[in-house]
Amino acid sequence: MAVQGRTRTGRSRADRRAALLAGYRPLPGAFDEFIDGQGEVRPHWEPFLSEWCALSPAELSQRFGLADRHVRDTGVSYRVHGDVDARDPGFGERAWPLSHVPLVIPEAEWQVIAAGVTQRAELLSTLLDDIYGPGALIAKGLLPAAAITGSPDYLRPLHGAPGGGSLQLYAADLGRGPDGRWWVLQDRTQAPSGTGYALENRLALARAFPDMFRSMNIERLASFFQGFRAGLVARSKRVEPRICLLTPGPLNESYFEQAYLARYLGFLLVEGGDLVMREGRIHVRTIAGLKRADVIWRRIDGDFADPLELNAASALGVAGLVEAVRQGQVHVANGLGSGVVEARALMGFMPAIARQLTGEELILPNIATWWCGQPQERETVLDRLGEMSVAPAFRGNGGPDDAPVLPGELSETERDRLRQRIVARGMDYVGQEVVRLSTMPVFQNGRLEPHPMTLRVFAASTPEGWKVMPGGFCRISDEPDARAVSLRNGVRSTDVWITSEEPVAQVSLLPTPDRIGIRRVSGTLPSRAADNLFWLGRYLERSEATLRLVRALLGRLMDADPAPGRSETVKQLAGMLVAWGAAGGGPARKDPVAQARAALHSLDDYGSAAASIREARRTASVIRERLSIDAWRLFGDLQRQLVPEDGRKPSEGETYEIADRALKSLAAFSGLSQENMVRGPGWRFLDIGRRLERGIATCRFARQFADSHASGDSLDALLDLTDSQITYRSRYLLGASLLPVLDLVMLDPYNPRSVAFQVERLDAEIADLPTLADDGMLEAPRRLVLRLAADCRTTEAERLDRTSVLLFEQLLMGLSGAIADRYFLQNSGPEGSRMTSIA
């Protein structure tokens, strides 16, 4: 029986193999990574294919689901430039397009790629030193001056500055030609992206195929990031430097990656507004004053880095950054002027430059390039215009004219216009050989199909020299056209597996115990991060208040045994939804069910639960490096609950259940923040935001439902809205009465929902926040919260009326403003001048 079982398994594997390979035909004239010229699977792919064939279709689907859930739960995403819709809860975020088949490269072949990328990184680093230094290559005639000075990425103010064009991270976009040789399609030196996405691709596929990952001896990536981080630390003048990752902001196409890398590497994620130059040094604006920044890993274009000396229109950079670089007080990686060597105009000169600087030929040649700024090369391009790809010689503004074109596919009129532009201003164009890219397998329609691909390989400058990531960022096109220009809009990505003959060493970014000292003090909290944590807490509490209103309203509408005064309570509840912008007016105002539904789902009403969660998610996306995966997953769950995809209007009962489930999800987030977040400044600002918003909402509820003429049902609604029913019933046997209810929700310091309790927590949190001056004087937020605490302790329930409750509400709102003025300062001003710098 065992023999028969193995026979059946063997046949099953053979059948699955045949099904996977059915119809797999490499594209004509293209090298295929998976199938050789004889139609056989290449040897280094066999272990992978064998493992796949051992899985049934159901098992394979389950493995794919694991990878896809990892991508969804961790929020891996990207944006397309200009694709931002304010009505979209994700603000233009798109789910990461993961392909489930990795690119497999054997170790021997990878060593050649790594050697070529290392050589090119060293070459470009030397070239940058010459461009921003002696200019020997231009003097010798090996490099035309116009090919450098004509580039918008050549930054004249950085000439002679230490590290003006230095490289710490280099990336090469590679393609394999029909002959099987790898070619450099483009150099990336400005601010290379993709390292974080490569790491996420690895985590997703390692989760899906852990057994395969181990058995094939796949090289690990952690050592690369370890070396990169060590290289940045070595650039600082201090033993424990403060390293910042400078991001363009949350609407940038790769913001997820930037936040992810900041968390993974332990860097401080900052925007230009978080930084300021004082006395020749760059500092981070924090809640404790100015803190020195030693190293800045930039993810913005160099010319946007300093509006004072570079691009005056930039709102992304730091005024004075160039001067700080010139004085050697901060190191910027990559150097602000490093983007100049990305220009396609330089690619035609690289072979000669390599021979001059290294005495060697390029291990990885770039595609043949003719810069039209030279008469002979321009004539070559014009003569062979129909055979070439024509591309901009330098980086432009990202418009349609920046994309390469195939003149052979243009109309006669369009080709003539292009020819005229090249003749009129040839230095702006290059002609390049049209390279046919290799293909790799993609799982589609139940089988493997060949698709064109490119490979981005990264090299980092470390204290031990250049180190190449043993993997990379592979992009796959959905288009069958294997020419390089067709991949400018690649739509999938996958992991790159470098196989080894020997078991690979386990590497972690965690330092060994003897290399790190113990500390219990939280790191630096930038003012911007504190601001966003504060408002994250407020938005979450605001959405909870709306959900409680909706649940209280619908619960009374569906009650089969209504209490006296019920109709008036329903009007009050519906009126509150309209008053604070959760539900619109108009004809729907007369239908409380429609109002409840709008307050739950409408994105057009700024106070609705869906709108508040949308704002909370957007705020959280700005500080996602400070939130756990579980917290981010809860945002996704809330968004799916409150923004139905089918557009169907739920019934009264369904609307009630949606509100109830959303409240449970918010309670889960509250539990995560209370139990899992370290009690540092970040947690304090999140909690302060929640406490303030809860106190303000409770005051508004009390003014609406606990006036001197309040019915028992209105008081009962107030207890529902403040989640105080159980506490009240345990203390009082009679029904809801005005003074006991007011005391419980306003003044009782033991009720975690009362205003007094919120004020006590605010007092404790604000007392633990840092002060700017050690002069013994109370700062404005502390003074206000102490006044509030005194009022809560001395006021009696008998003296509470609408006016006194309104005073509590106004004091809380004044406290919010005082906190913003003190801690969320982003621009220089009177208080900014008082910020002290701590080295």
From TrEMBL:
<feature type="domain" description="DUF403">
    <location>
        <begin position="525"/>
        <end position="824"/>
    </location>
</feature>
<dbReference type="InterPro" id="IPR025841">
    <property type="entry name" value="CP_ATPgrasp_2"/>
</dbReference>
<dbReference type="InterPro" id="IPR051680">
    <property type="entry name" value="ATP-dep_Glu-Cys_Ligase-2"/>
</dbReference>
<dbReference type="InterPro" id="IPR007296">
    <property type="entry name" value="DUF403"/>
</dbReference>
<dbReference type="Pfam" id="PF04168">
    <property type="entry name" value="Alpha-E"/>
</dbReference>
<feature type="domain" description="Circularly permuted ATP-grasp type 2">
    <location>
        <begin position="102"/>
        <end position="476"/>
    </location>
</feature>
<dbReference type="Pfam" id="PF14403">
    <property type="entry name" value="CP_ATPgrasp_2"/>
</dbReference>
<protein>
    <submittedName>
        <fullName>Uncharacterized conserved protein, circularly permuted ATPgrasp superfamily</fullName>
    </submittedName>
</protein>
